[in-house]
Records
---
Amino acid sequence: MEDVIIIGGGVIGCMTLRYLSRYKLSLRLIESHNDLASGATMANSAIIHAGYDPEPGTAKAYFNVRGCGMYPALAKELDFLYRPLPSLVVAFSEEQMATAEALRTRGEENGVEKLEVIGRERLLELEPNISDEAVGALYAPTAGIVEPWGAAIAAAENACDNGAKLSLGEKVIGMEKAGDGILVHTDKADYKARAVVNAAGVWSDKINDMLAPHIFDITPRLGQYYLLDRRTSGLVNNTLFACPTKEGKGVLLSPSVHEKLMIGPDAKAMPDRDLTPTDSAGLAFVKENAARFLKCPLPMNLNIRTYAGIRPTPSNGDFTVGRTPVEGFYNAAGIESPGLASSPAIGLELAEMIARDLGAEKNEDFNPFRRKQIRLNRLSEEEKKELIAREPGYASIVCKCEKVSEKEIVDCIHRNAGATTVKGVKKRVGAGLGRCQAGFCQPVVVNILARELGIPKDQVLYDDPGSEILLEKTK
Amino acid sequence: MISNPDLVIVGGGSAGMAAALEAKKRGIENILILETDPYLGGVLRQCIHTGFGLRTFSEDLSGPEYAARYIERIESEGIRYLLNTPVLEVRPDLTVIAISKEEGYLELHPKASIAATGCRERGAGTIAIPGTRPAGVLTAGTAQRYVNIEGYRPGKRVVILGSGDIGLIMARRLTLEGAKVLCVAELMPKSGGLKRNIVQCLEDFDIPLLLSTTVVEIHGKDRVTAVTLASVDENRTPILEKAWRVECDTLLLSVGLVPETELFSDAGAAVERGNGLTVDDHLMSTIPGLFGCGNAVKVHDLVDNVSLQGEKAGGFAAEYILGGK
């Protein structure tokens, strides 16, 4: 029997696992996909929102502001890609300036610090390319940008370094209360645990309903994005939002931690929770709405990828975090935006609650630091010199666009919560997310995975089972 | 230790090797070719079909044979090259920063440099094909590498979008390997591929070439299960009412090549609309002393022409160096 089972390996489940690993508890995380961070965590706006957006008094407001404040220190401990980057909510009319003002008031009520409503002059200093129509903005300097899947994987790896276990590619099909614990049935095995956490993202309504009274329904929504090459660097300096409307936060422009420019999302209901197709109408909507931010046309010729992500929008409008009427069963459910920003705070709060309920002691041996990941493309000249002299393997570049070395790829395969797929490598070291979109490096990554995992090349998967890249040997 | 070369050539493919040989012939002794891959010859290594060298050697050679002719000459001329040596940065003063397994971190200050970095393929992301993003969508050149170098077939039922030469070559190659190539869809009303490839790669194998046709949706969660094709009107807008679905496991893309010039444009060199390095009559870029040739300047149909331009660039770079500038 485990002490705690977490269902769902997105950023919420992984953060919860990590904070639980600070206690003397046996932990297991179950994820239906082949890799962590495969649902909502994989494709979203990658923004650590400051916290001016949620209604005061909501769980969203509470966790957003706390989570946002945790990121700078957490990113250092777990060594994931994060950068403080102010958000600007751009107003295009005096009426929208009033909205910006209202957002400031709301943010302050939520506990967000350093919010300012700025005029056009200051806005121009921050964003020289801003549209002539822009009259001012809400300035939120505590916001940030992150690699969402990197944060989730780093948290899980750190938890595993501290003793947690992962069951990937296992789908939970049922649960029942059994004596002093909860039985969790997956399509591959049965587990028992004293406590179970529902962090199942887009499936969190269904997982809740397996054991607890119905609370909410999830309406999966798709958001589509363009990703522009790093040659756009300098075009936009901060995350640019439009003033929110009834339809949501709307299309944004933001630099990514990979120095690309992210443009999106739209929002549309998606009946199939496992599919994230793009469509031309949605992409056209994104392009049209993004164009108004700047006085120059967006360099859409520098587009390197279009993609869509799914978001679990709950019918009750707020996060559902904490105990359920069923003893030992906890929810971290219905987590849509600002879930990414909130995730460390949700994980921390749940972990402390569960540890208290289970009477768990602190794990004195807990190591909060993940072993540093060497990223060649982020080193200074001097650091590169020193590294190559010491470890010539880092001079062997596999991904030419992002300058990712073979040694980094081998390392990410052999870590805890390591890569087992081509997409897993992309998520962990960034190979293939550049301008050639893996045209050059994918065959090399396939070879490295086959070699390191000891499998034939035609068994190397892109992502989930059934995603073989090569179908059979040539004649 | 690498002594500071007079001429650095970035890229050891057909353009770079030809440039090096010509510069040597013109009296430049201290030349260094920097190549990212573990071999010289660039993409020629995977082009095992023939049709190379008709102009340069008046012979019909395969890609590896064509490359071998140049590699032999590079060796016999004693021209230095470093493999596994990616260039990280080129600066406006021609400083070249590279890293090499053997030589470590390199900071070179040549008198002239030649951009011979070739090109990359446009992929599904660049052209924003709607639908899902499963395994089984790949560029023709990547597929060519899987088949010819790695020895694996990437698909059994294949639709090809774009009738560029690599796509046409791969239609034949995959057919010979036992795959069913269902059709080649071309957005334009006529193919941009060489006539000989259309005849020898499609017509001879009864593979339909569907002109004014494009892929409007990719289907499949883990692996491609189908694509939706549609004819396009004279503005290249798909006529969705007349779209049809083709069950397949692979979508091969041959939708254009983009010169790889970011290394040089990051240093401030001007590039053309199509991303090719801007060069003058002497193949010199807007950075004095930085020359360009081959597919990094303009995507060529024939490797012979790449070699010829490489030779010219090598000559101009030699003149520049010997002119004392």
---
Amino acid sequence: MDNLDPLILARIQFAANISFHILFPTITIALGWALLGFKLAYNRTGDAAWMDAYRLWVKIFALSFAMGVVSGITMSFQFGTNWPGYMEKVGNVAGPLLAYEVLTAFFLEAVFLGIMLFGFSRVPNWVHTMATLLVAGGTTLSAFWIIVLNSWMQTPVGYEIRGGIVHATDWWAIVFNPSMPYRLTHMLIASALTVAFLIAGLSAWRWLKDGGGEGVRRTLKAAVYAAALLIPIQMFVGDMHGLNTLKHQPQKVAAMEANWETRPNVPLVLFAIPDEKARTNHLEIAVPSGASLILKREAAGVVPGLNDYRGNHPPVPPLFWGFRIMVGIGVLMLSLSWFAAWTIRRRGVDAMPRWLAWGLVTMTFSGWGATLAGWYVTEIGRQPWLVTGVLKTADAVGPVGSAMVASSLTLYLTVYAVLLTAYIAVLYRLARLGKTAPDDKPMFPVPSIAPGPAAPVEEEVAP
Amino acid sequence: MTPFVDPWWLPVIFAGLMGLSILLYVILDGYDLGVGMLTRLERDENRDLMVASIGPFWDANETWLVLGIGLLLVAFPVAHGLILTQLYLPVVLMLVALILRGVSFEFRAKAQPEHKHRWDHAFFAGSLLTALCQGYMLGAYVLGFDQSFTSVLFCLLAALGLVAGYLFVGACWLIYKVEGDLQKRAVRWAEVTLWLTALAMAIISIATPLLSERIFTRWFRLPEIIALLPIPIAAATLFIGLAIFLRRPVRAKDELSWVPLATAGILFALGFVGIAYSFYPYLIADRLDIWQAAASPESLSIILIGALFVLPVILGYSILSHWIFRGKATHLSYE
């Protein structure tokens, strides 16, 4: 194992952990708001179908949240175990941002989650609704700080280097760094789309089995409409994000488009096998002047090419393919959600053709695929830099031996494979059980002491 | 921005905040992990009840670890890298164990009933391995990461010692949170683990000064020794007092059931003060002090503003959460 490059191993290990981690925040960020939506709809209408939906999805939220917390703790340690040079060099900027993430967001979620999950009969109804709001706000705030830090690493501003160490000079500039608004919006909508397709997929699966009742029909419809509405917005935001990247990290865009020479009329490559040794593409299928049109809004627009950044640009194939996978999933999402929304709007959920429902089931986890592909593009696209122009990844790696990293990597991967399998299996199980899912009765029998002030609403809805 | 506190004080304040987070973590997640290990001694209904007694608290409790490590990361970046690369293996094992413990909590309730016992095993194993790894790290930290054979033995001993400590505080939590026969058994568990904890604390307290001349003189010179004597005396008194208290039958209305838990918390705090006094101002024994390891005063000031504003709020709603779920544990319900 010692012949493997420790840098590559440390990167693979960090990538494995952060990829596993991001799956769960991607779900909880938007699912928190979806739950608030269900809760508010229930408060307004008193309709038990919304509370059924809340009870089912709050369990999935709890599970996803726990997976996010435990894999997130791993991240806070791996900064030290894998990249000690990172905090030594840019700790003065990264430190406060990470601290604010933990202080403002993490605790808000962790504390109010308990009330949100278990407090429905122990606190007044408005407190429960408020706890749901705070948890949703907490996950979003958490995402905000992390995206700020990540964006600063992509497009660092507001700092100076004294004695080889980065010192912050302008916090306003650091927080609102050039790529932050685009990345944040893109990620928040990505989360919303992931959750929309997750809810639509699991609801469609339940609907295919036995109809599932009013709660299932309602979530299916809401999720399909949300997806159909959000996907064009996401494409627009993604385009803006691309233009922003072209301005600040042109070499990343050049690698995404596999464009080697700086020139006008750059074609949009649909398929190719990029060859970094020969610095050319094989088997290229391309739309003439397509990339120039997209990136410069004119066919004769000059687009920068990779040969201007020899030895200082990211590896081409992962970016080229990652970008195409993300966009490909996006196009699939667009066609499927629009067709499903159109069908449901015209004929109702129950008249939906079965193949369409199966299509939604197939796309249940498509948001994960697109989100991961997108993050690989942006993160690998930053290489060879860890912080663009400030710190190279190779200079931040720790002294831990390859054998140690490789064996711990194997351990992590095994655990993650087991957990991911169990997670998906449990999601389907919960969807199958619906409102009779285990936590309602068998696991935790009826409270044996007088609960706190009970929610007045409960009595109104009681049959 | 310019620091609003004397730059000399900033690392001291952050060392204090970090210490407080770690202490709170050890007490709060200590009872979670202790209860997790004790679940092995019960089954079915009682096991569910024990898990339910920590249900609303465990992830907020675990977050103190994130805050403690987070403060080490952001306030003392150099020390974070040094300490964690030294402790690479126990850290990895602890993280895997924490992952297992945390998710088993969810899976045992949501997976198919025939798989429940597997997640129960994972819950127990995760709790135990976490405690062992943390104890090992404590030992390694106290020894300044020495890797000799005797040092490793000492670390293993510390690992068992922390397991005993967590079992003790876990049993005290159960005395406070459950009733009836289960509570009576919790009293017995507390009686046994109390002495193991006392033994472990005594060993670490004796070993630490013998390892370093600097620590030895800090403790055993006049007049400090007189000022410091209350720490071991108070600890011994509390151990003996609690042992006597536990022998008495449970009160009719169960009104003093919080006493063992509070005593355990104070004992942990005393042990922590002892270690902190031995090490201050070093983050790594005799090698790296808090001023050498600190981030720039400007960055520390920025974090401090947030910390001073947010920490009271965090403490406040931690207390709120414990108050909402006060009283004897019932079977948690999503209702």
